[in-house]
Design brief:
The chain contains three helices and four strands; from the N terminus they run βαββαβα. With 110 residues, the chain is of the alpha+beta class. It has one domain. The longest helix has 18 residues. The radius of gyration is 17 Å and the shape is elongated. The relative contact order is 0.16.
Length: 110
């Protein structure tokens, strides 16, 4: 049976029984994490699935924080009285691209 977790670069949810519950948790965590403060190109939220109690898992959905250049062009957070340097937004990660990337020492899948 597939189980799911929501993970960030800081924490991990308990195991979730359905993808729908994982997706609701994922959306809430994205909102909370963005409000709490993210680091562009480092902060992420993802849903992972596993069939073996998370000995192995597969990322099925992921976003990463990036600088929101369009909003920043209108004014930086500091100009608006905030205590951070840039506006951020979530960008979907193309998981098909990640599957085709091999780390040094790994064989290709082709």
């Amino acid at each position: 049976m597939k189980e799911y977790r929501v993970q960030t670069d800081k924490e991990c949810s308990p195991q979730l029984q359905t993808f729908e519950l994982a997706e609701r948790t994922y959306e809430k965590w994205k909102d909370y994490y963005m409000a709490d403060g993210v680091v562009a190109e480092e902060s992420f939220v993802e849903i992972v699935e596993s069939t073996d109690d998370f000995e192995d898992h597969k990322v099925v959905k992921k976003v990463i924080a990036v600088v929101d250049d369009e909003r920043t062009e209108l004014g930086t957070p500091r100009e608006e009285g905030m205590d951070w340097d840039y506006w951020a937004k979530w960008q979907e990660v193309d998981l098909a691209v990640l599957e085709n990337i091999n780390l040094p020492g790994e064989e290709t899948n082709r």
